[in-house]
Design brief:
By secondary structure, the chain is α+β, with helices and mostly antiparallel strands. The protein has three helices and seven strands. It has a single domain, classed as Ubiquitin-like (UB roll) (Roll), CATH 3.10.20.30. Keywords: Cytoplasm, Molybdenum cofactor biosynthesis, Nucleotide-binding, Phosphoprotein.
Length: 95
């Protein structure tokens, strides 16, 4: 299943593996523009405990490019724009 393009003024956040289980969603739309640090604090507010249980160990991409996940309270200059696609990718193991 492909994710539909967000409407003007929004971006998509894609949830994979444990992030999808934690939120109960595969993706959702967020208003844009939005600083990455604000997105992370908003995720914690919407899904209490997500920072410690998911975000602390995940990787993130913005438009398929890996980005550093800022620590809580850190400021950054990365501002997500409308139509951006952010993916939250928890660690996976193979065996």
């Amino acid at each position: 299943m492909s994710t539909p393009k967000p409407p003007p003024g929004y971006l998509n956040v894609l949830y994979f593996a444990g992030a999808s289980s934690y939120t109960g969603k595969d993706y959702e739309r967020w208003p844009a523009p939005l600083p990455l640090t604000k997105l992370l604090s908003d995720l914690e507010a919407r899904y209490p405990g997500m920072q410690a249980k998911v975000l602390a160990t995940c990787m993130m991409t913005v438009n398929l490019d890996y980005v550093d996940v800022p620590d809580a309270g850190e400021t950054d200059s990365l501002v997500l724009q409308e139509f951006d696609e952010v993916a939250i990718i928890p660690p996976v193991s193979a065996g």
